[in-house]
Amino acid sequence: MNKKMTGSLLALLLVFTLTLVGCTKTAEPKEAVKTATANAAKMTSYTMTSQFKINDLAITSADGAASSESAQIANTLKNAELTLNGVYQADPMQTEMTMNLKLAGGSMNFEVPIVLTQETMYIKIPQIPMLPLSQNVVGKFLKLDLKELAQMQGEEYTPISADTSQKLAQELSGAVLDKYDQAKYFKDIKPADAGLPDGVDAKQVVQFAVTNDNAKEAVTIFVKQALPAVLDVLSKEEYRSALNLTQEDIDQAKKEIQSEDSQSEFSKTVNELDKYLTLNQFNINTAINDKDFPVYQKMVMDAVFSNPDTKENVKLALEGSGQYSKINEKQTFAIGIPADADVITMDQLQQEMGSSY
User: How many CB atoms lie within 10 A of CB 65?
Assistant: First the structure.
């Protein structure tokens, strides 16, 4: 599968994962998820707060100990926390967010404001202790022209329209969710028992969950049924054009997925999945307000990844959440479009950094 096709699929799957949401007034959980995915795509503006945190990370070898290098990695990433606070509006398209990354128990902290318009991205250059930067660039916004970046890759920059994005999200959700049995993977949770944060008013909470008992089945359904269905959706000319894909790209991806060798290798991997993975917990809870918009979502995963040959184990527990407010209201942008005096181009950055850059 070529790089362009792989990147597009990963991006779409990421978007889909983040939009496994929703409900209607009295809908069954599975149908509720599909309905609210469409509603989520119709959000024309919102304020957002997201958090991703590694609660536990342990790397051990056959004797139960960890090498010094593994221990260092684990200590750096354990309790690592990424937060995003931002504002979005569709027309005119403008997004701003402040990304904050904490590592090594908070001893390393990086904050990066980002502004995005239809054709331009601005990234504020932080001071990084491990990478001393010229004071002429620290605090400046690096300006990136999205059209120029696309041209450098030999592609045409064609931003996807809001209408196309909405329809695509709805069709992708149906293509995937239709393949999963409601009784096994979806259920309602009482809002009072869902551990919702203060300020989140939900009329319904829907949980999508995969357990250690049905992990093999869930993976098989996704690869053998859902993924081909996703490719069928992408085959529609409207979406191919919007995503700058060709039918040849999609046909090749489908051929590789469904080839005899791929299917044989996949079946072998799935049959031995319990040797490599112990899934203690994986679920996504989504809270929906009385207007049928997703206002809060939380993902929790606790798993052990094993290598039966080396007897090495990686225990990983993490959680992520996203909260939305001021949906479809007029937004206030704290950063705004950076002034020319606060902007630096890529050429200027290269000159400041010199040959080492």
Answer: 10
- HEC string of 63-98 equals CCCCCHHHHHHHHHHCCCEEEEEEEEECCCCEEEEE
Q: Give the pLDDT confidence score for residue 53 in this predicted structure.
A: 95
Task: Please tell me the pTM assigned to this model.
Answer: 0.80
Q: In what order do the strands lie in the sheet with 81-89?
A: 186-189, 204-209, 277-288, 294-307, 312-325, 45-60, 81-89, 94-103, 108-117, 120-124, 141-145, 343-344
pLDDT in tens, 210-262: 999 999 999 999 999 999 999 999 999 999 888 888 999 999 999 998 888 88
If you average pLDDT over residues 343-351, what whole number do you get? 89
Chain length of the chain: 357
pLDDT tens digits for range 90-144: 889 999 999 999 987 667 888 999 999 999 999 999 887 667 777 888 899 999 9
pLDDT at 49 over 60: yes
Amino acid (one-letter) located at 37? T
What is the crossing angle of helices 162-177 and 29-41, to 10°?
Answer: 160
Alpha helices, DSSP H only, in the chain? Answer: 3-18, 29-41, 68-77, 146-152, 162-177, 182-185, 215-221, 227-234, 237-242, 247-258, 260-271, 273-276, 346-353
Dist. CA 87–CA 329, nearest whole Å: 11
345: alpha, beta or left? (left if phi > 0; alpha if psi -120 to 50): beta
Where in the chain are the domains? 3-81+161-338
What is the phi/psi pair of residue 25, to 5°? -60, -50
Asked whether the beta carbons of 316 and 301 are under 8 A apart, the reply is yes
Alpha-carbon distance 106 to 83, whole Å? 13
Residue 96, phi then psi, degrees to nearest 5: -135, 140
Query: Rounded to whole angstroms, how far apart are CA atoms 245 and 254?
Result: 14
